[in-house]
Amino acid sequence: MTLLQSVTYLVVRHANREHALAQIDSSLRAGSQVFKKLIEERNRQITTTAAILSRDHAFLEAFAGADQDRATTLSALESLRSRINAERILIASLDKQLLFDTRQPERRSVPFPFPKLVDKAEAGGAAYAFVILDKELYALAVTPLLAPDPIAWLCPAFHIDDRFAREIKAYSDLEITFLDPADPERLLASTFEQEKRDSLLSRLLEQRLPIKQIVDLQFSGEHFVSYSLPLPTENGTAVALLERSLDKELAPYLRLEQTYLFLALIGLLISAALAIWIARSVSRPVLQLAEGTRKIGAGDYSHRIKVRTEDEIGLLAGAFNHMSEGLAERDQVRDLLGKVVSPAVAAELLRKDVTLGGEEREVTILFSDLRSFTSMCEARSAQEMLGVLNHYFTRMSAIVETHGGVVDKYVGDAMMALFGAPLAGHDDADRAMETALEMSEALDELNREWQAQGRHALEIGIGINTDVVVAGNMGSQTRLNYTVIGDGVNLASRLESLTKTPEYGTRIIVSHSTLEKAKGRYRTRRLGEVAVKGKQRPTEIYALLGREI
Amino acid sequence: MAFSGLEAGSLNVMVKDGKGAPVSDAVVYAKSSATGAHAGKRDEIDQRNKQFIPYVTALQVGTSVLFPNKDNIRHHVYSLSPAKRFELPLYAGVPAEPVVFDHEGFVTLGCNIHDWMVAYIAVLATPYFQLTGRDGRAVLKDLAPGQYTVAVWHPLLKGRPEASAQHADLRQGDADEFLFSLDLKPDFRARRAPGLSNGGYP
To answer: Which of A133, A299, A531, B47 gives 20 to 30 Å between its CA and that of A87?
Structure first.
């Protein structure tokens, strides 16, 4: 942006200068034409004036009357001179001798300095030319004094002086300086003030100006575009130096440039401020979002982002907040779910859409039941018994979970646990049996505690079976449970009941299918066979005694 | 002052221009029914240093005026004014005959060969006149008792002097001061040829 503006500025500046220079060039050339015309016109005018003057009868009488005298003629010439504002008047005799010069009254009977001009006047009735006389530049008109034939030549001389230069300047709008190359030490006339004249003069002594060419001339600390026009005179060539101040001419362009620069700077400042503001308004919410994401990553779902803009960032922040709320809600649900159902089931439920239906999978089912809990309940408050039961279940379910099992449900003092659902493991049978053994050990510990408290010891029965069952969400559309159903489940329940059989003398009964799946080695005792509903062959059952050491 | 009878009186006159500045070379004169006579007096107007001297002359009708040329060049004095037309072609020294101004009126003099030479003559039908000095004041003295018309003329006066004339009653002696406020034209006389003094421009 800055670069673009700088480039634009430089281009505009360059174009402006080029344009200004071209303009000055052409105006200088046009000005020189105006100058030439003005000079020509004026010379013609003074010639006409001179012609009128030359017919002044009173003067003729003083000049050529009966008793002419030089002093009277000179004083009458003065009167004529002041009448036409000429600097001086010369009179030449017909044989080209100088008779009078109002500037130098004593001068007489010397050759008239511009004889050719007289020849021209003789040929054309009148003539005019620039002349250099006494080191000054004059416009000289030559017109006959008629009585009624020519008796002499009346020559008014108009000084090309500062005043004249200023008059021309008023018409042409050019700075004008008249020079005599033969007399380079001084300026003949100029529109410049003294300081600039001196400066120009010393500049001209250093640098000779080419004729009829536009030249860049620097003096007095100012740039001028100069055009030197030759001014042929009767006795040499003077030069009119026409000039325009480049600096003055460029002033409007410079003003334009400055204005542009100023506007560009303001634009730059505004855009910079805008950029900072936009960056901030974007980066601040983005930083907030990043911070929020970090917090959510760390588990803090309560974090909310305060962005209230209407733009995409605002939408994003809204979505973020919505997401945090959702996450917090899900977390809450998961907590609760974990309490109501086992964490693994909860995770499974959260992972998938909760829909009714199930899948067939191999699951090891563990059933446990407290013996003689009912009799223990007698003469105890329900509250107390619930406390005992909860203590028991807390312990037992911890063991189930430790071994990767899932507590499917509690029914009274009974508990059903699953291994291999909802997630299948490669050692579900082992883990179920390990769980059973640990539960048995845990009960011994609990019994010691209870007996220490003066309570009855309790007995436990555990049945384990492995089978392909249906696992899934079962219930109604609005309320459902993740569980397993099938004959395999019933068998596990039956095996648990069989532990009550005194002949078996064991707390844990395992089906043949479970033992078959187990990879570890266990101490077991074959108990016999039981007929199983839905199967033709009876199933072998075993008492699980412990681990093989 | 209680005068009566034949004691002579005087008139004090102050002449100012439109801006209140005193006007010099203004001709103040008082006329009455008794002042018409021809005087037969003599006067002179010089040409010296290519100027008429004095610039303004007041005289009574019938006065003969000589125009001596005191320069070492010749002059050509003329007048085209209706009150007196005359011409003294280029001459040096004192002309043989004076010019008699025998009609009341105002005369402008010029020199045919020197544009800047100009002078004025007020030819008056009364012996009571005076030119104002630099202070714009003039005093007419020894006026016979009677009633007068006081008027002022100046070379640059717009209109005729009668237009601003005032009545003066000198039957009881001196009158109060008369104040004239003149409406003057701008001075556009040809300037004296400046010679070499200012570069040739007026």
So the answer is: B47
Q: Is B102 on the interface with A (CB under 8 A)?
A: no
Same domain (yes/no): B95, B111: yes
The answer, for A76 touching chain B at a CB cutoff of 8 Å, is yes
Statement to judge: residues A457 and A319 lie in one domain:
no
Same domain, A116 and A179: no
Kindly report the pTM of this predicted structure: 0.56
Range of B139's domain? 1-35+132-185
Q: Check CB contact of B114 with chain A, cutoff 8 Å.
A: yes
- Interface ipTM: 0.74
The span from the CA of A540 to the CA of A545, in Å, is: 16
Same domain, B9 and B81: no
Range of the domain at A303: 299-339
The phi, psi pair for A167, rounded to 5°, reads -60, -45
Judge: A71–B89 Cβ closer than 8 Å, yes or no: no
Residues B166 and B176 in one domain: yes
Q: In the numeric block, which tokens belong to residue A399?
A: 């063991």
Contacts of B113 in chain A (CB under 8 A): 58-59, 61-62, 72, 75-76, 79
**pLDDT per residue over A248-291, tens digit each?**
777 877 788 788 889 888 988 999 999 999 888 777 778 888 88
pLDDT tier at A341, thresholds 50, 70, 90:
low
3 state DSSP class of A203: helix
Among B107, B125, B143, identify where a domain stops: B125
| pLDDT at residue number A1 | 64
